[in-house]
Sequence to fold (364 residues):
Amino acid sequence: MSNDLDSINSGQLLTFLFATEVGIGILVLPRTLIKEVGTGGWISIILAAFLVGIGVICITLLNRMIGDSGFAALPILLGKPLGWVFSVALMLYLVAISSIVLNLFVEVVRIWFFPAASRLTLMLFLLVPSVYMVSKGLRVVALFDGFIYLIMALLALVPLHGIIDGNILFLRPVLQVTIGKLTSGALKSGVSFLGFELLLFFYPEVLGKKRLFLTGAGSIAMATFFYVGAFIAAIALFGPVQPAHLTYPLLEISRTISLPIVERVDLLFGGLWVTAITTTISGFLIGLVKAVETRFHVRNRISLTVISIVTVIASLITGSFAEAEALADMIGIVGLAVGVVFPAVLLPVAWLRKGAIKKWHQSK
Fold:
């Protein structure tokens, strides 16, 4: 594939990051936070936004210092053996998070819409269009992700309904938990922002690199706004206790909406969410394709097919919904380490290896 197919501007990057970040978290985050933090969960979401914002700063500085993506320069920064070890580890991380998104999609659809559908059929239903988009390059993925604004505008009507028809006084008292609980809630919320770490894999492809930080921060701000709204809506409509026992609070809110034209608003909401989750998995898949291309210099239909098969196999390993959510929490912590801790550690290494980076660029 031509590199021109991967070139995107800062506006398209903003759309791509936001679309990748907002997916599973729309449905799962309110319940998870209410269990962990209670009515103060919205504070944990804001703390998580600041945490991933630090990661965006570190990745932006790292990419600028290197003049390429942080992933591409790993063998130069860490030496070839260790650089390859971390490269493979990051690719495995992308496989893992792609498979978890795929698996959680299957569980949501089976619980809410089609209980008798086979897992493999539902996986292919989501994966085939996603793989097709990825085969066309990053630009096509980002252009499709432009629909996310229309989708999010429509999906936002659901939490807006909850806030208008509910009672926001249920949010009181705000601080009824310890700082430790808020911090734990922030880490769980950080999982819902994953997608920002893909900045580690894309840099030469982005036009307008000076706006890279503002683009990353903008995607986080939009995701924060949506997540806080969803959390407040769940509390306002169902009270401070019941949302913790609802598998997907936003889907339950959509059930309470009645429209003169649409009889089952929850099915409409679910259909829009399927489109949103397609943008999420395609984002991680294009990141994985780019990582394989960068390290192995291979990018064709065979490599994309292998990536897809590996992702499906990894998804089939998880047996139940509870296992899928437990793995999602674990991989989420790994994702925060990849997006925040890892680039922060690489920054001083890149500064010390300026000479090696210069020689690397000259040898290209």
